[in-house]
Amino acid sequence: GEDVEQSLFLSVREGDSSVINCTYTDSSSTYLYWYKQEPGAGLQLLTYIFSNMDMKQDQRLTVLLNKKDKHLSLRIADTQTGDSAIYFCAESHGSSNTGKLIFGQGTTLQVKP
Amino acid sequence: GAGVSQSPSNKVTEKGKDVELRCDPISGHTALYWYRQSLGQGLEFLIYFQGNSAPDKSGLPSDRFSAERTGGSVSTLTIQRTQQEDSAVYLCASSPGLGADTQYFGPGTRLTVL
Questions:
Q1: What are phi and psi of B98, to 5 degrees?
Q2: 8 A C-beta contact, residue A92 and residue B99
Q3: Which of A44, A45, A99 sits opposite B99 (nearest CB)?
Q4: Would you give per-residue pLDDT tens digits along chain B (114 residues)?
Q5: Nearest CB partner across the interface for A98, out of B56, B104, B107
Q6: What is the C-alpha separation between B44 and B52, in angstroms, rounded?
Q7: Which chain B residues have a beta carbon less than 8 Å from that of A7?
């Protein structure tokens, strides 16, 4: 079945780069997503990447996809205290294309001033 | 509306009671999804709707859980005879269509079963 795994916690200093990693098992995934959840708030889509791409950059965010290893990463440049949140990696259920998302456990990013 | 809304934002109930959770999707979005976020299980898919029909109910944990959607808009998730393990945040999302369309999430309903 599908499975998505992430490390649970990352701590960085303000101004440093953060790299959050994710691995997945479903080779038929078509899209991979990064969501951000701030305390008491819903999930906010940060970015997504199509499975035939290797990299996507959007301002401070860079997504790298290694399809062979089923590894996805999110790099946040110049991390700010406002970036402190839980980050979820998710894959779409590619084989059925229903849009059903399978989420990782979430990585808590702590940014120290 | 401007975004996905859910009500109530918080619900405390006693074990054995029934609860109804409501989701108002973004106007015009045909696809609607329910997820559950709990400490032990993370974020789990429950059910999705395309229009008023629910082709995939595979994530519903038991037959105590049911959901409906009327008029292609509002959806209600009902949990009968609630148990303590049902305590979680229930999230609703909508998207313009199926597949890769971006899902927009509501703020969730925090359910606590005493």
A1: -90, -175
A2: yes
A3: A99
A4: 579 999 999 999 999 999 999 999 999 899 999 999 998 778 899 999 988 998 888 899 999 999 999 988 999 999 999 999 999 999 999 998 766 678 899 999 999 999
A5: B56
A6: 21
A7: none
